[in-house]
Specification:
Elements (H helix, E strand, L loop, with lengths): L2 H5 L2 H26 L1 E5 L2 E4 L3 H7 L2 H31 L4 H12 L6 H11 L6 H8 L10 H29 L3 H9 L4 H12 L1 H16 L3 H6 L11 H11 L3 H34 L1
Helix pairs in contact: 2-14, 3-14, 4-8, 4-11, 8-11, 11-14, 13-14
Length: 290
């Protein structure tokens, strides 16, 4: 077998490279082009260098949206990761009950994101919504369209209901991949349930939990459809996250230059946090092995 035969495998990924070029690379280069120009109209543009980046970075509304986004993503991870692991540990391991549980858990993941927002609008309406009317009938004033705290509570409930099943499915897959011999050895040694979880299950799930953490962070940091449908970024700016603020600049104000610069900064922030998460998890795993 010569060197050319070894390189024939590249032909199988050429279609993927072409698709990625049109769906990702070319749009990204277009955004980069817009971020360094001031566009007045068709064929009328002026090169401004990094002027839009300076303007965006000094924008106080961007700083507020970033802190809201970080708080939202942090709360999502703090709730969904432990909850997902706990549900996975309680799920049946064999039989029809295991299959039924997996199917039921996967149902929220099949619903389109904009439909999720519509469902929770109806569910939490203070007059006819099952949740909203029930809370108000108990003497607790609840209205996510008028109260910022209620809006955050509704968003968190919606996000946890929608995406915790993904963490559960990944954690369950990690648990099912652990050989039975580990449990038998732990049983012989008289290990407690906590010891089994701490020294067997959790280390063996580190790979799938890393994937779950990164996926959930990226999804929560990029969230747009659900809060836009549910609250529109309100009341006031209470739920105006980075994605909603970006759309307001690009579509509402039609400031393509600042919007392009903002989107690139947004992209770099996500890459930075994902890299930090990955490095931290790798360091934890290396420490446990040593």
């Amino acid at each position: 077998m010569n060197k050319w035969d070894n390189n024939k495998a590249w032909f199988f990924i050429l279609p993927v490279l072409v698709i990625v070029s049109f769906s990702a690379i070319i749009p990204l280069m277009t955004v980069v082009n817009y971020s360094v120009q001031d566009i007045f109209g068709p064929g009328q543009r002026l090169f401004v260098g990094v002027e839009w980046f300076k303007e965006v970075l000094l924008d106080g509304r961007l700083h507020e949206a970033l802190w809201r986004q970080l708080a939202f993503s942090g709360l999502v991870l703090l709730i969904e990761m432990p909850l997902g692991i706990g549900i996975a540990l309680m799920m049946p391991k064999k039989g029809w009950a295991a299959s039924a549980s997996l199917v039921i858990l996967a149902l929220p993941l099949l619903i389109p994101w904009n439909v999720i927002g519509t469902i929770w609008i109806i569910f939490t309406r203070p007059d006819i919504g099952l949740f909203g009317a029930l809370v108000n009938s108990a003497g607790i004033a609840f209205d996510h369209t008028a109260n910022a705290v209620d809006a955050w509570i509704t968003l968190m409930l919606m996000e946890v209901w929608h995406w915790t099943p993904l963490v559960v499915l990944l954690a369950y897959a990690g648990l099912r991949a652990i050989p039975e011999a580990y449990y038998q050895a732990a049983k012989i040694d008289g290990a407690s349930s906590w010891a089994i979880f701490r020294f067997i299950q959790l280390p063996k799930m580190r790979g799938v939990l890393t994937i779950a953490l990164l996926l959930r962070f990226m999804d929560s940091f990029l969230i747009y459809a659900e809060p836009f449908v549910l609250t529109g970024g309100g009341p006031g700016n209470a739920t105006t996250f980075l994605s909603i603020y970006l759309v307001k600049i690009a579509v509402g104000q039609f400031d393509l230059g600042p919007a392009a610069a903002f989107s690139l900064i947004y992209f770099l922030i996500i890459l930075l946090f994902c890299w930090l998460f990955y490095q931290a998890l790798q360091a934890v795993g290396t420490g446990e092995k040593s």
